[in-house]
From TrEMBL:
<keyword id="KW-0808">Transferase</keyword>
<keyword id="KW-0963">Cytoplasm</keyword>
<dbReference type="GO" id="GO:0002939">
    <property type="term" value="P:tRNA N1-guanine methylation"/>
</dbReference>
<comment type="function">
    <text>Specifically methylates guanosine-37 in various tRNAs.</text>
</comment>
<dbReference type="InterPro" id="IPR029028">
    <property type="entry name" value="Alpha/beta_knot_MTases"/>
</dbReference>
<dbReference type="InterPro" id="IPR023148">
    <property type="entry name" value="tRNA_m1G_MeTrfase_C_sf"/>
</dbReference>
<comment type="subunit">
    <text>Homodimer.</text>
</comment>
<dbReference type="GO" id="GO:0052906">
    <property type="term" value="F:tRNA (guanine(37)-N1)-methyltransferase activity"/>
</dbReference>
<dbReference type="InterPro" id="IPR029026">
    <property type="entry name" value="tRNA_m1G_MTases_N"/>
</dbReference>
<keyword id="KW-0819">tRNA processing</keyword>
<feature type="binding site">
    <location>
        <begin position="162"/>
        <end position="167"/>
    </location>
    <ligand>
        <name>S-adenosyl-L-methionine</name>
    </ligand>
</feature>
<dbReference type="GO" id="GO:0005829">
    <property type="term" value="C:cytosol"/>
</dbReference>
<comment type="similarity">
    <text>Belongs to the RNA methyltransferase TrmD family.</text>
</comment>
<dbReference type="InterPro" id="IPR016009">
    <property type="entry name" value="tRNA_MeTrfase_TRMD/TRM10"/>
</dbReference>
<keyword id="KW-0949">S-adenosyl-L-methionine</keyword>
<protein>
    <recommendedName>
        <fullName>tRNA (guanine-N(1)-)-methyltransferase</fullName>
        <ecNumber>2.1.1.228</ecNumber>
    </recommendedName>
</protein>
<feature type="binding site">
    <location>
        <position position="142"/>
    </location>
    <ligand>
        <name>S-adenosyl-L-methionine</name>
    </ligand>
</feature>
Amino acid sequence: MKLKFFSPATGGACGIFEPARKAGQKRRAMNFTVLTIFPEMVDAFSQHGIVRRAVESGTISCRTVDIRDYTKDRHRTVDDRPYGGGSGMVMKPEPLAAAIRDARNAYPSARTVLLTPQGRGFTQEAARHLADAAEDLILVCGRYEGIDERVCQGLIDDEISVGDYVLSGGEVPAMIVIDAVTRLIPGALGGEDSAEKETFVQGRIEHAHYTRPPVFEGEPVPEVLVSGNHARIEAWRLETSLVRTLLKRPDLLLERALTPEEKKALKAWCRKVETLVAD
């Protein structure tokens, strides 16, 4: 697979991003380097859950770089007033550029990604592309009003946005990218097909879930789930997945062609609705 990525400098597709593995070749660890002025935030995140287990198993590595370590003044200043006036502050180019270059020296083939509202939207497909490419990532977390444009033009390979809203900095988006990508790396999750059955992977919301007790506040678990009939269970899961998607995120179904199995399940549900509303 060869993937094209956005270039902030040109505004168009930039370069070719190829997977690092050949057929039969063992996958190496994927390295995430996060450049931030708040390394404690990301360090705490990487010490829990699936990301922690992936680090311990050698599936990924996750390290932080404190941008303030690259400042030259005793106040460890990383921001300054914007030229032309205006509100807010801008991240200074000198310490950020030095931090990026140092991270690139450690991982020469890494892709440098700026987390910014002006980036391309981060979707499940984008996460899959990054996981399949298996290239190291340097994630740059901006703060204040943003970073000096000269850093964007000269040292950033890609820009990613996690949504059309404003956050205080790029740390939370960086953690989102790490979590979403890590889940798609083989071996990171418990079950071999766990990631393939999650919401968005198949273009629809995941089916409803139930666990013990069998009755909670008068509501029982659907009979089909305790029937032991695996074919009925799978059919029920497909139907509830489609119905939940239709009710909550119909846009997901409108964006793609339905499979014959999905059409059959939706038609069966429509017949149930028609029976309910019939005079």
